[in-house]
Design brief:
- The complex is a heterodimer of chains A (about 240) and B (about 300).
- Chain A is of the alpha/beta class.
- Helices cover about 30% and strands about 25% of the residues of chain A.
- In chain A, α3 packs across α4 and α4 packs across α5.
- Chain B has about 300 residues and is an alpha+beta fold.
- Helix content of chain B is about 70%, strand content about 10%.
- Chain B has a 4-stranded antiparallel β-sheet.
- In chain B, α1 crosses α10, α2 crosses α10 and α2 packs antiparallel against α11.
- The longest helix of chain B has about 45 residues.
- The chains are: A alpha/beta (about 240), B alpha+beta (about 300).
- At the A-B interface, α2 and α3 of A face α9 and α10 of B.
């Protein structure tokens, strides 16, 4: 499937700084990054380098101390707080700890995301099986999370994040809890989603994945961008 | 879909937190019953005052035909004696402290009695002729009763002078103190109810933190996230309010209307079920407001990022 390449910026950070406590070292320090529609970007760096802060700023869970952020055509500084839910409907989010509801089945976990944004039952009944098929969980709709392997649970989480077909998918260490074999499966899935035109931004420690995928790499160190490389590998020193 | 979602969440929340919901219901029931009692007591005081206190403060009973009082030996009061008394009340030093003089004839006294209690003992046994005429005097300052009593008491044609405040004073004092007590208890209980609702909502929100985190993440509106918790509190508090109204209604119906009215205090105009209904909307409003405030205060903190 050809990847649509309309050169539209979906995430734009312009001199963004974030200081959590006054006087402390900034979590992000004048970061400028532009991510186009359809990009697959690895956000790498040691713990505390600012990766999570970056993702939180995109989701507007945090607000920058300085600088401008545009996400999906919105200036986040001007975004009224009651409009934040609309922004988040355009961003799917996947986490290291899956965050599934333990008492709901696979189908219900994915359907929940649609239910709480007001989709009707018929819509849910057609789109949930579709997405479960896409992530390779067809036939496991009625399983509970604890009956699934870690990789399968992460697939459910990805299905939930992507079921609403958001243009942006944020992944915070999605393979952090998985073994290498399983991780490759997850990465292939994310790659497939990326090929549908979805921008994927993935924060990770997983050198192996970064090296294999040969995608754009943005490296943060102490809150600063030290590398932004189109087809990077994990450990490369900045030029 | 949203409505179904909200209903399911609310029911689930109430089921998971049954004991807390029950305690909220009980505490609001008790506190609003006190609020309602205080209000009803004041309505009762108002009714009693309307009946007597506001209109008449000093009654000068004039000699009837067969009085037991010594100063009435000369026989019933004559028209010239009446004119005399009225003149004293309306002119001179008394004229300045008397606001209004109202003359009640035997016939009027009789009609008033009939109106108050057509089937009572007195209405059955007495006739208009057994009643006695009186002057009802309203003073600018009720405290100056003694001046009127001194000036009038020994005049010919006067049987006796009554400061009617004395008759009701004690009763009103009791009722007012009971109101204060009920109001004070109500305030304490309302405070307890508020804290309990806050705790209930907080527990409920914490127990569903995973859900609310996901809801926020996938872009669910704040209203949809918070409404189920608010509704839980509101439903519990409103149930408590409804039960307190039912309790007050039963109390007025069976204690006041059935029991007091059939007692020998039946001439008093008592509160009735209608008065309970007039208080009811306020109780519901307080119950609702209480839980709404508690929700807003709590939810901001426990369901946001």
């Amino acid at each position: 499937m050809p990847t649509p390449r309309a050169p539209t910026t979906v995430i734009h950070f312009s001199d963004v700084s974030k200081v959590y406590t006054r006087g402390a070292r900034p979590a992000l320090d004048e970061v400028s990054v532009t991510i186009e529609r359809g990009d697959f970007v690895f956000l790498v760096g040691a713990s505390g380098s600012g990766k999570s802060t970056f993702l939180k700023l995109v989701l507007r869970e945090e607000r920058p101390t300085a600088g401008r952020i545009h996400v999906a055509g919105r200036d986040l500084a001007k975004l009224a707080s009651w409009r934040v839910p609309q922004l988040r409907r355009e961003i799917g989010a996947v986490f290291q700890d899956f965050r599934l509801l333990p008492n709901k089945t696979v189908f219900q976990n994915v359907g929940f995301a649609l239910q709480v944004i007001g989709k009707n039952r018929r819509y849910i009944e057609t789109s949930v099986p579709e997405i479960l098929d896409l992530v390779g969980l067809a036939g496991k709709e009625k399983r509970l999370p604890h009956e699934l392997s870690g990789g399968e649970q992460q697939r459910v989480a990805i299905a939930r994040a992507f079921v609403n077909r958001p243009p942006i998918l944020l992944c915070d260490e999605p393979t952090g809890n998985l073994d290498p074999g399983t991780s490759i499966g997850i990465m292939r899935l994310l790659d497939r989603i990326n090929r549908t035109g979805t921008t994927v931004l993935m924060a990770t420690h997983d050198e192996l994945m970064v090296d294999q995928m040969r995608k754009r790499v943005v490296e943060l160190k102490d809150g600063r961008v030290v590398r932004d490389q189109l087809q990077g590998v994990y450990g490369l020193e900045p030029a | 879909m949203r409505l179904r979602f909200i209903v399911t969440e609310v029911l689930q929340g109430l089921r998971r937190n049954t004991t807390m919901a029950l305690s909220v219901i009980i505490v609001t029931l008790v506190s609003l019953a006190f609020v309602g009692s205080a209000a009803l007591l004041q309505i009762q005081v108002g009714k009693l005052k309307d009946d007597w206190y506001d209109r008449v403060e000093v009654s000068i009973f004039l000699c009837p035909s067969d009085s037991a009082y010594a100063q009435c030996k000369a026989g019933p009061v004559t028209p010239s004696q009446e004119d005399n008394i009225r003149a004293i009340l309306e002119t001179g030093e008394l004229g300045e402290i008397v606001e209004q003089v109202y003359y009640e004839t035997k016939q009027e006294a009789w009609e008033n009695l009939l109106e108050r209690d057509p089937d009572g003992f007195f209405a059955q046994q007495l006739t208009a002729d057994d009643m006695q005429p009186s002057f009802r005097v309203k003073l600018q300052d009720p405290e100056q009763f003694a001046l009127v009593a001194d000036a009038i008491e020994m005049r010919p044609g006067v049987e006796h002078v009554v400061d009617q405040r004395e008759v009701f004073g004690t009763l009103f004092q009791i009722l007012n103190r009971a109101t204060l007590l009920a109001a004070a208890l109500a305030i304490v209980m309302l405070l307890a109810a508020m804290l309990l609702i806050t705790t209930t909502i907080r527990l409920s929100a914490l127990s569903r933190r995973k859900e609310t985190t996901i809801m926020r993440m996938v872009g669910s509106s704040k209203t949809l996230i918070q409404l189920p918790f608010m509704l839980e509190g509101i439903i519990a508090a409103t149930t408590g309010a409804l039960l307190s109204i039912i309790g007050l209604w039963l109390g007025v119906r069976y204690l006041v209307q059935d029991w007091l009215t059939s007692s020998n205090l039946s001439w008093v105009d008592y509160i009735d079920e209608g008065d309970v209904l007039s208080v009811a909307p306020w109780l519901l409003l307080i119950g609702f407001g209480l839980s709404a405030i508690a929700s807003v205060v709590t939810l901001g903190r426990y369901t946001s990022a």
